[in-house]
TrEMBL record:
The keyword Membrane applies. One of its GO terms (cellular component) is plasma membrane. It is a multi-pass membrane protein. It comes from Paucihalobacter ruber. It is found in: Cell membrane. Its main location: membrane. Keywords: Cell membrane, Membrane, Transmembrane, Transmembrane helix. Residues 3-88 form the DUF3817 domain. The chain crosses the membrane at residues 6-26, 38-57, 63-84. This is DUF3817 domain-containing protein.
Amino acid sequence: MITAFRIIAFLEGISYILLLFIAVPVKYLLEDESYVKLLGMPHGLLFVAYIALAFVVRAEQKWSNFILTKILMAALIPFATFYIDFKYLKPLAK
C-alpha cells in the first residue's frame, strides 16, 4: 500500500503544481479556462485518493494523529507532498 500511496502523492503534487502555477494564471491572464477544465478533474480525483489512502496507510502504520494531520495538510500546500514522501513514505518503502 505504501507504493500506491507514494505514486498517488507524487501525482497529486504534480497535478496541484500544474493547476496552481500554470492553469490558473492562464485562466486569469489569457482568459482561457481550458487548462483548468483539463487539469481540475484529475487533480480532484488524485486529491480524494490521497486523502483516502492516507487513512488506510495510517491504520496500517499506526501513525499518530499529529503525523496524519501533517500528511493531510500536505495536500493543501504546494510541493508538500514531495516532503511527505521523503520524510515519511520513502523510509517505509525500504
